[in-house]
Amino acid sequence: MIGRRQPHRGTVTALLALAAAACGGDEATGPNPPPPTVSSGHIAFQSRRVPYHQGIYLMTGDGDSVRPVVADTFENVDPALSPDGGWIAFSSNRGGVRAVWVIRTDGTGLAPVTAAADSLSDTQPSWSPDGTRLVFARASTAGAGAGIFLVGVAGTGLAPLTTQAGDCEPAWSPDGATVVFDRGGDLYRVAATGGTPALLYGSPAAEADPAWSPDGGLIAFGGMASDTQDILLVRPDGGGLVPLAAGGARLRGIEPTWAPDGSALAFAAYRAGATTIVRRRADGTGERVLLGQGFTDLHPSWSR
């Protein structure tokens, strides 16, 4: 990302893997089943469609009706749609520091949630299931004050959930009880009420961008499989690891997000010379490229 350091280690690593893999052809392309039919909903994503600046955009779950929500001269990243689909939380450097903001999906109601100091950087918000609170990652150049934090949507009740520098990419479970996050390239879990984080899944490769299925039974994430970036699925107890696509296909994807009914996932992937947003059924079949205009599209967030 451009600007102040942000805890996007997993995403940056994954993008490098995607770009390197592009030299060898695309195992995920070729003859495909028909595109998935799912309940559409809406997907928010970030894109550099305004030259030199990241904006927040919205489209249907079918990739139609793309429109800007926040497209200005600031770096607006990490969109997260609220559970009811009415709001987007995101990270922006407007105001001179990187903080968490919210805006309605119609582009009104822009408001700050956090007010980070110059030494802090707030990114990667994720909504509580009831839509009243956010969990986000805070980085610090001062060596203190970093970790995973909770805050009310109105900016009240700010409190640390973890206090280890580098903790990032939090995702709130559908039942509201647990937050899973990235610590040092491994997936950890911690009670949303606080406590000692526990390892959920780790490997020699980096795991990043966890996303809970709507029923809470699976966590999708970006990880390495056979030396290729892939979308993987694991149970919340850390068992049952499988790739999203069976049969040896490697999707070269990052940043997964689930359809509201759990029938499909969308994720960022390297296709046809650009990073774009694609969709597959939850059984891994039926890939559909949702955005094919050649922009750098990242960080999809799917809601109703």
In short:
The chain has 304 residues and is mainly beta.
How would you name the CATH homologous superfamily? TolB, C-terminal domain
Shape, please? globular
Count of individual helical segments: 1
CATH topology-level name: Neuraminidase
Give the low-confidence spans.
1-38
Largest sheet: 4 strands, antiparallel
Give the beta-strand count: 24
Task: Give the topology string: H per helix, E per strand.
Answer: HEEEEEEEEEEEEEEEEEEEEEEEE
Taking strands numbered 1, 2, ... along the chain, how are they ordered across the largest sheet? 3-2-1-24
CATH architecture designation: 6 Propeller
Q: β content, as a range?
A: over 45%
Question: How many domains would you count in the coordinates?
Answer: 1
Cα(first) to Cα(last) distance is: 28 Å
Helical content band: under 10%
Radius of gyration, Cα only, in angstroms?
18 Å
Average pLDDT works out at 86
The top-level CATH class is Mainly Beta
Instruction: Supply the helix-strand structural class.
Output: mainly beta
